[in-house]
Amino acid sequence: MAAKKKTAPAKGAQTGVEMVNRPYERAFEKYAMAHPEVMCLSADLTSSCEIDKFRDKHPDKFISLGMAEQNMLSFAGGMGMAGYRPFLHTFGVFLYRRPYDQLMASVAYPRRKVRLMGFLPGVTTPGGMTHQAIEDISVMRSIPNMTILETGDATEVESICEAADSIDGPVYCRVLRGSVPRLFDTPIQVGQMRELALGTDVLIVTSGITTEEALRARGALEAKGVSVRHLHLNTIKPFDAQAMLDHIQSVKGGVVTLENHVTEGGIGSLLAEIMADNGVGKRLVRLGLKDTYAHGGSRPYLMKFYGLDATALVAGVETLLGKKLGITEDDLTIARVEAVHSTVKAEGL
Amino acid sequence: MSRRNAKTTEEIALGIRRRVFEHAMRNNGGYLSQACSAAEQLAWLYNEQLELGAPTLPMIPKPFGGVPSADNPTYHTGAGYNGPPRSDLDRLFIAPAHYALVAYATLIEVERMAPEGLEMFNKDGSSVEMIGAEHSPGMEVHNGTLGIGFSTAAGLAWARKRKKETGKTWVFMSDGEVQEGQTWEAIQCAAHHGIDNLYAIMDVNRQQCDGAMNTVMEVGDIKTKMENFGAVVVSIDGHKLDEMRDAAKEKHKGKPLIILANTSPFRGMPTLQRRFPRLHYVRFKSEQERAEMNHDIARALGVDPIDYAGAH
Questions:
Q1: A interface toward B at CB cutoff 8 Å?
Q2: Is the pLDDT assigned to residue A335 strictly greater than 80?
């Protein structure tokens, strides 16, 4: 759980980022084929979860469970009783909203080694309310025995299967798909946050896709003389509070969190709990979806509209510092814009 | 299959009813009608049908040992009362966990648990819980939320088939579960994946918590619906052991086998009919009713009335 290892962003993290196409597809196949107890379960979103080639190449390790998530969760629990480690593939939202009862009774309580691979976290889907897992972390954090991992770049997606399968119990993973930027050059080490900058004025804590936004904002903030400490979380539960506490106490100012999630129950709440539990008298600005649903649209549009992007983060830091920094949109690295209906996935779902 | 006990299955079924009756009298209520409807099914499963090893847990159940967690390395389920999870042995899930009292009585009758176990029923700090928990005697998973049992068994059976284990996976179900969508998801899944080492016997007593099922939510022809979802289904008189024995021999290659045991919720305790249609959990309304039930049911079961003075 030590968090002292400094993990630098890969070269060119802020400009000319390497984009990796379908990193999960290759990573899962490689991992699953090396581990006989790993099984691939799907709930009718096989190509959407990048396991369609796996289904075609390895039908003996693929189980189609159809649009029947309640059964899938309990079925997976039954498989776990026999020593298998099923990887469940569907959109994150379908792993816990409809089958919540089954998630509790068949997976979480008995600590089955079920790997819940939740695709399209938060606003990364144009599918609107029914498809957007905006409170999944909040739900999962409140489930005893549950581990939560979140991927923020291609390297983390490439290492998510091994990381998830190392957990002695159930694990929920927020998985990115399609074209994913490579920000890091070391795999996920469960329980170890990434220390991306060790400045002394403000602490920025991000996870998932918001880390890329923070990398964008950081350059502009530092150009204005703000010394930023930036942490990236890939393990959200369990969480080493002491390591985070040390970082909080290493900055003169306060803390800003930015998450692809509602601001209740996610990493903003996690920081609030750590600060309150330890009597830290510093300000906390929690950025994310503010007690609201999102709607259908492109990811860049949604991130701007709901204040999940670099611009929102700069504004959050300004709130914390109590002054305007004069940072313009142009000062922020041009956001990567991708069409909703890209060549990666025709329907966008 | 050979009998494991000196007692006949009929004697065990009678013993289950007597134990549940005694317990209900002394505790001013209980799951009486479930004993009436299910006694033959559970007696038959444990005494004839299931291939089980010797119990691996103490005859007198240990107290509650904590819930599963990373910090509780000694945690175990109550499955050890059904023997070890060996590849050639059968597994049983009690899907309606509120039948726990009846299941515990069965364990005592087949000498897998000591009679003292029933004294711990629903007592604080006991593992012998009112709604069977994972850690309760004879239980391996939580089934208190109805409808998840068959799915769990399907997943386990699928895995056991893949591992070429010869043991069967059985589920004791209740008919109220067919109101849950998950039951239908599970049947279609088991059929789709050819899970034919999966067996269920369902207590079709037509009762549920609110009363008679046809007044709460009509479920129609369960047999036809299950067949349409892909199961092989045999409908029998759930109090006739020969029909049960024959039903279990039904060929069902590539499909799960479900036995619909049509039963009476008053079987063996005709006086209970007075409480129809509120039979789910019978609590006596007055001392007079308790005394009358005590007298009538004791006579029907061929025992002396229970001396419950000093009990609850």
A1: 63-66, 68, 70-71, 73-84, 101-102, 105-106, 109-111, 144-145, 168-169
A2: no
For the cut 50, the answer to whether the pLDDT of residue A2 exceeds it is no
Indicate yes or no: CB of A102 within 8 angstroms of CB of B188. Answer: no
How many angstroms separate the CA atoms of B170 and B189, rounded?
16
Whether chain A has a CB inside 8 Å of the CB on B155: the answer is yes
Out of A66, A110, A169, whose CB is closest to B70? A169
pLDDT of A1 higher than 60:
no
pTM score, whole prediction = 0.94
Q: What are the start and end residues of each CATH 3.40.50.920 domain in chain A?
A: 194-331
Q: pLDDT digit string (tens) for A22-58?
A: 999 999 999 999 999 999 999 999 999 999 999 999 9
Q: How far is B32 from chain A (nearest CA, A)?
A: 27
User: How far apart are the CA of B240 and the nearest CA of chain A, in angstroms?
Assistant: 31
Across the A/B interface, how many CB contacts are shorter than 8 Å?
Answer: 103
Q: Report d(CA A153, CA A181) in Å as an integer.
A: 6
Choose among B90, B94, B79: nearest CA to B203: B94
> DSSP readout, B185-239?
HHHHHHHHTT--SEEEEEEE--EETTEEHHHH-----HHHHHHHTT-EEEEEETT
Instruction: Report how many domains make up chain B.
Output: 1
B161, two tokens: 């088939």
Question: B158 lies in which domain range?
Answer: 9-65+72-301
Q: Is the pLDDT of residue A344 over 50?
A: no
- Please name the fold of domain A194-331: Rossmann fold (3.40.50)
User: CA torsion B98→B102→B108→B109, rounded to 10°?
Assistant: -160
Report if residue B204 sits inside a domain: yes
Residue B307 forms part of a structural domain: no
Quick check: B192 contacting A, CB < 8 Å? yes
Per DSSP bridges, beta strands A255-262 and A235-237 are unpaired
Give the position of tokens 């998630």.
A103
Question: Taking residues B34-39, what's their average pLDDT?
Answer: 97
Residue A246 has pLDDT above 80, yes or no: yes
Q: Which of B144, B147, B154 is facing A78, going by the closest CB pair? A: B154
Nearest-neighbour CA in chain B from A205: distance (Å): 28
For residue B137, give how far its alpha carbon lies from the nearest alpha carbon of chain A (Å): 16
CATH number for the domain harbouring residue B266: 3.40.50.970
Q: What is the ipTM of this complex?
A: 0.95
Please name which of A285, A284, A314 lies closest in space to residue A217, comparing C-alpha atoms.
Answer: A314
Q: What is the pLDDT of residue B277?
A: 87
Which of A71, A78, A105 is nearest residue B142 as measured by Cβ atoms?
Answer: A105
Does residue B94 lie within any of the structural domains? yes
Contact A78 B152 (CB under 8 A): yes
Query: How far A80 CA sits from the closest chain B CA (Å)?
Result: 8
Judge whether B80 and B134 are in contact, CB under 8 Å: no
pLDDT of residue B144: 85
Q: A26-119+152-181, which class in CATH? A: alpha beta
Q: What is the pLDDT of residues B237-260, one digit of tens each?
A: 999 999 999 999 999 999 999 999
Q: Where in chain A is the domain with CATH 3.40.50.970?
A: 26-119+152-181
- Give a yes or no: residue B312 inside a domain: no
